[in-house]
Amino acid sequence: MRVCMRARRGARQAGRWLAAFACVLAGLAHAEQGAEAEFDIAPQALSTALTQYAEQAHIQVVTAATDLGELKSAGVSGRLPTLEALARLLSGSALRFQLVGKDTVVVLDERPAPPDSELPLLDTIVIVGKGYTRATNTVTPQDFGAQAAGVPVQFYLNSLPGVNAQLSDPYGLYEFGSSLRIRGFGNEQIGTSLDGVPLESYDLREGSPPSRYLDGENLSELKIAQGSGDVTMPSYHALGGSLRYFSSEPLGVWNTQSSLVTGSDDLTRLFARLDTPAWWPGGPMAYLSGSRTRGVQFDNRKASMAVDHLSVRVREDFAKGSLSLGYRYGNRDDHDMQNYQANGQVSPTFDLLENMSGDPERDALYYDLWTNGRRDQLWSLQTRYEPKPGLTLEAVPYFEDKRGYGYAGIAPSVAEQLYQDAMDASPQRSDIEAYDGSGVTERKETLRGLRRGLTASLGWRLGAHALQLGGWLEQFDFSQRRPIFNVDDEGRIELSEKPIALYYDRHHDTGVRQFYAKDTLSFFEERLSLAAGFKGLYVARRFEGIANSQAFNEQRQERIRRIDKDYFQPQLGGTLKLGEHEELFTNYAENFSAVPRNAMGSVSYDPTLRAERSRNIDLGLRSLRGRYSASLSGYYIDYRNRILQLTVSNPFLVGEDVYQNVGGIHTYGLELANYWNPHPSWRLGSSLSLNRSRFRNDYQSYDVITQQEVLLPVRGKTLPDTPKVMASADLLYRHQGFSAGATLKYTGLRYSVTSDAESVPAYTLADLSAAYELEGGVHWGKLRFQLNVYNALDKFYIGYIEPSDRVDAQSQGNFFRGAPRSVYFSLSSEWR
Hints:
This protein is mainly beta and 832 residues long. It is built from seven helices and 46 strands. The protein folds into two domains: 2-30 and 129-831, Beta Barrel (Maltoporin, Chain A); 36-112, Phage tail protein beta-alpha-beta fold.
């Protein structure tokens, strides 16, 4: 009931925003929709004409699985709306196009199939990023049908080279059991955005993973730069790579979509979306969608998991621009998952109980005491204005309100010790009370964050130059408090009473200022393109409060100010067309990451901590030949000033950590990806990643057992949780309404400690799918039945690794077991 009430409150707030937006739009005159551009495309082969169109309209055209054959185009010239120009190019070809994301269209083939021939296959796995100076790929909705309806958006990353995405289960219901690494960098070092809004995700408490807001059905496009994000990427921790998620636009007609999923671990998921036409002639169009997911953990069927989403988007197009208002609400409730050892045995330090034992010391790990919840809301207003040809202004103001909680059981002996430590340090204090002997005590962490920001950019095409100027402003206020309380006779935590002790009460204010400039020049009829740019970053942090339990014991309030800045982070790159289908690319980038906020609350904050830095070099070759596309890239990364977090292993003493610079890491590797449609009914894809990430030098570290500084001999050792080899293969077959697919993903051996003394073995996962789709005509749309089997061979494996950098004799990582075989049946429908 509480979840429903919160959802209704979020919906009411969305309604107020939509009403205000509608009032503004009511006074605006609607003109011809779509941006305009100047075209000069002569009559020629349609495939070549579409290539020129993409360059002149600055729109990505996806045709990888559409057979253009010998089709011709009459060409187009003059200043026209971009979509009208595309329609003229396709005129008479029996092809049509569909807008699937921001500046991306898919060309669809509606020609009748020849007798005894399969229907053309319209979907492709990945679009190799033509024209980019970095290793770049784009995943489009055409691939999504091979996955179960509603799987988290991160799921689509695993088919890409260099990416290791781990999920707690196929639906990622436990965020703390999921991880993402790209070329050795973790998700805390990768820039992420959603519809232009930066999603800082250094940790899950202050961060906002995209799966908190975005249903897979609403994802239109995902762009990934494996090596280094573009200078335009808003982020203050992106050392390697970027992820840009784009949600779909309103369709502009009455349309409903729905899906029902049921399967393993009592999972049920409902999704529904309603699109509207223009609300009045020349008015805005919109969609409203929502989803509800419920399930249990695969290794504890008593532990429930729940996720709810609500999304609203309203768009208004004008002759020279557009406005798009978005509101997203995410609600999550879950139980913590069991930890494991590298050998697959249950971790003795975090062995959650499914039933009470009667021993309060042991019952502190009763599963129902370890729960988490998040309530997140995000508003954004995408604005685009083209006052004259070649000049484009874009801005995205946004506001985010995030709240959360986390409960955990605390052993009586730990509570008594924490209380006694506080009283020993300050004997006269009266703000706490002793453990009352009522059994297990509990802690409750409360989280609150408010983010307000703006991204803005100016694009200007001037002759051979394509100039980009822009910036990012943000103010982020975040607080977290973690006290321990007694419980009453009925086992309820006594939140209204004085706490037994306090781990911390932290308040962070973070101000971000980022600016960038970039120029791309084209030579020799655009066969050679050179890009040069830089970005500057200023991050000012202010910390106030009780930093840790030691400060609480001493009744000491901390006030810390810190500024990390680098006003010149250059990026240089280029592409060279070797012919009609192949091109070389290269890129050099310097990146900078501010010191994490948690370092300011550590037990021994070091004001001389240096910001992390990286130098990224990419060099590669691409080939795009209609039904076949491939890329081969090599890279080198010089990662310096690595910041290490040392955390005490006792789960009851979370928060006792130390941060320090520990040297650098050298990373180099090769990535190969190819995608092939040998026949209209077949699709083949594969990728291979070779990576070597090594520590450059030994470093001094802190032994939490002896409480002394010791030398950690890691020079030449491999970075934890970074496999040297990864590979994937994908096969999809479709004949008329039937389709079937298989995916294999190999993940090599991974280490869990910096000494390379502990590791988890390599493994290969196989996923299978089968579906049948019924076309119901223009108004009935389609009906789709689908069966998905994940980990079809029921392979036991370790998924997410939480590496350890400790140097005591018992140093080892924490592990989450990968989900066993999971089977899901889904029914999806669409009506117009």
